[in-house]
Amino acid sequence: MTPASSQQQRTVRGVAFALMATLSPFAGEARAQEPSTREPARAEPSASQDTRTDAPSAPLSPGEELVLPALPFLDLKLPSNTQAFAPRPDHAVFDTALPGYFRIPSTKVFLKLGIGATTTFAVTSKLLGTPTWFTTSAIPVRGQPSFHSPGTHTTATANPSDISLEMRGKTELGPMRLLFTTSFAQAQPAFGFHPNYAYAQLGGVLAGFTDSTFADVDAYPSTLDFEGPNALVFSKHAVVRYSHALSHDKERRMFLHVALEQPGSNVPTSAGAPRDMLPDAVIAWRAEGARGHLQLSGLVRAVGTQSRDSKDSKTALGIGGNLTGAYHFSHKHTLLAGISGGQGLGAYLNDTGGAQYDAALNTAGDLKAIPLLGAYAGFTYAWTHTLSSTATYGWLKLWDRDFAASLDAKGFRRSQYASLNLVARPMKGVLVGVEGLWGYNRAIDSQSGQAVRGQLTLQYRY
Q1: Is the pLDDT of residue 19 over 50?
Q2: Distance between alpha carbon 455 and the CA centroid of its chain, in Å?
């Protein structure tokens, strides 16, 4: 016997043992339900006993057993994938029938598996620092190596594809939800895990990896570009959140969220090593109804550094707000918008997240939080029940000229973002779309650069 065939046999035996272990509980249940070969003794019915027997009742469907509230939005037919996965304070869902969920045998828990396969082709006027994402702060400005890059740059990737595993059930403390989903989206065409959600929610308490409470996923414009507008508050990290219902009206819902979130000081190396003194604290008020929603969030954080010799540490106060919302004029017309501002908030916005724009050293050598202001708007129009378009514009500015020595003269100062797409959904789960994008980036030294992109996206989701 060759080593290869021996290895194959061991593999087959391993698979067989695994299948036997998996199926044995079901086999046990089946044996328990089989009729006995021996005829049991039959008791004679008494005069008072009803000889009729009731038929066993059918098991309840997931929607009938969990009885979750419905989200009141008018755009129920076009929720984004992010909207479907985002936690809701009262576990509300877009479809109360809970299609796609099935009961885990011998439990009261329902499970749903999902997979999305996405392929994107993009042609950009110049090479960006993030080839697969249209990040406007990564557009090269005059004086940088790629500013005069000749010709176009083309990328093709399937890394926005994702998989998900979700469980729902009822407990004595309220509804329960467990969700894990990951995509493989990277700023480069290569594959790698890009965690989206990994959280547990019990009643109004949530813990795990999810969207920041400072963000509002229902106000994200429907761009085909994975990045989205420059001024969008987009941040996922560890969160502990409590949500309290301020209104019990099903059509006019209102909530208050209080959260402690994972800190992450983004500072230039010239300021020292990043140091997080306290968790970020967020409070948010939210109201929603059939015509849309409005959310106001506030954030307080401590942005810190520590000197290389660990003998000195500095802290700057980060504080700001984010006002977002959506208004559905009808099932065909939807306006989404957001405006955010403050200081020390760079980690939470698309164009500055993960970079060095929370705080920096000023001309006096003091650590100061960097002020910023950003806004965006998106308008979606449904031409037919299968064809829609979204136009998006975003603007973002940092007041960081006094930090040029710490950040570098080519550091980010201001950007603009614009996109327009045409998306077709010929059948459930299928999406085909084209999108045009334009971006503008301006550095601290007033040098600037622009780029345009054309994108084709194909997706099938189950």
Answers
A1: no
A2: 21
